[in-house]
Amino acid sequence: MLRHVLLAISKSERAERLISTSPLTAGVVGRYVAGDVGEVIGELTRKGLLVTVDHLGEEVTDQAQAEEAVAEYLRLPALLPAGADVSVKLTALGLRLSERLALDHAAAICRAAAVANVTVTLDAEEHDTIPGLHSVHAALRKDHPDVGVVVQAYLPDSLDRCEKLGGARVRLCKGAYTAPGAYTRPADIDRSFVRCLRILMAGTGYPMVATHDPRLVRIASTLAVLEGRDATGYEHQMLYGVRPDEQLRLSGQGARVRVYVPYGSDWYAYLMRRLAERPGNLAFFLRSLLSR
Ligand code: FDA
């Protein structure tokens, strides 16, 4: 219930004006969003962690905004260490305006990334953008076979999706939005996640296991061993600011761990989704506001 309220608030322009212009939120934002992105990437890299970098912004409504987002993403790869990844939301590139526009923009980003030895992963967003996401991903893979895509386990067709994505880099997550017909009970989402994991680990692609859930992290590592994958055959992914000790623990054990690092001023919807995921995060948020 609370999750649905917070996700609804994440789309409210009025709430966004109120919250994002308040100086009181700065401390909370800083926990999840990189202030100085170069510094954060340097620090994570020195600790042996990999990064995927997200320039915050989504749901653009005109071409000029989409072009601004693309310009930032064209600059980004050259600033990243080799082996880094960039995470891209197609609605920031103009998917709501036209699929062709988003494809052209994403293709330009893939070309810039390839020059810098950086990969690109397409984030999964609201349910009505998922067909466009997979159609753009399939088109991009013709020239950029290593472009990755996100599958949300809360969607009942996620299993089919994983089967169809044989050979691809696939980031599996639970799903951060709402969708008609989506699994909502944690047990159902977890079951779907594990079924998808089995397909991905047994397949020929590169699984990216995006969860902070200790049980799912353990299951992923076990399935990888059972399927004969070594530490380079898959990776764990976690969000900047979430379970940093666990990121280091896994990496210290020899696992590949990639941290999703968002940066930029358009952090409102991202932060609201993080709060919706975890009541503890909300308590932290409210405490930070009240203690000022
Ligand atoms: P969940 O939030 O259900 O938590 C399960 C358990 O994990 C908790 O009970 C606790 O034990 C532990 N845990 C979680 N947070 C913790 C914390 N702060 N401190 C301590 N323990 C904690 N979604 C989407 O729809 N599209 C996308 O493209 C992406 N991309 C993406 C990339 C990456 C790298 C990550 C990690 C996640 C995403 N997501 C996403 C978000 C994802 O769908 C999901 O909403 C969040 O990861 C939260 O789900 P978890 O699997 O982490 O577990």
In terms of topology, how is this protein built?
Elements: H1 2-9, H2 13-20, H3 26-32, H4 37-46, E1 50-55, H5 63-75, E2 85-88, H6 99-115, E3 119-122, H7 130-143, E4 148-152, H8 158-164, E5 169-173, H9 186-202, E6 206-210, H10 214-226, E7 235-239, H11 244-252, E8 257-263, H12 268-277, H13 279-290
Protein name: proline dehydrogenase
Cofactor: FAD
GO molecular function, one term: nucleotide binding
Summarize the structure in words.
By secondary structure, the chain is of the alpha/beta class. The protein contains 13 helices and eight strands. Strands 1-2-3-4-5-6-7-8 form an eight-stranded parallel barrel, surrounded by seven helices. Helix 10 links the parallel strand 6 (206-210) and strand 7. The longest helix is centred in the middle third of the chain and has 17 residues, at 99-115. It is globular. The mean pLDDT is 92. The structure holds dihydroflavine-adenine dinucleotide (FDA). Dihydroflavine-adenine dinucleotide binds next to strand 4 and strand 7.
Which strand-content bin applies to the residues?
A: 5-15%
CATH top level?
A: Alpha Beta
N-to-C series of helices and strands = HHHHEHEHEHEHEHEHEHEHH
User: Judging by the overall fold, what is the CATH architecture?
Assistant: Alpha-Beta Barrel
**What structural class do you assign from the helix and strand content?**
alpha/beta
Radius of gyration (Å):
18 Å
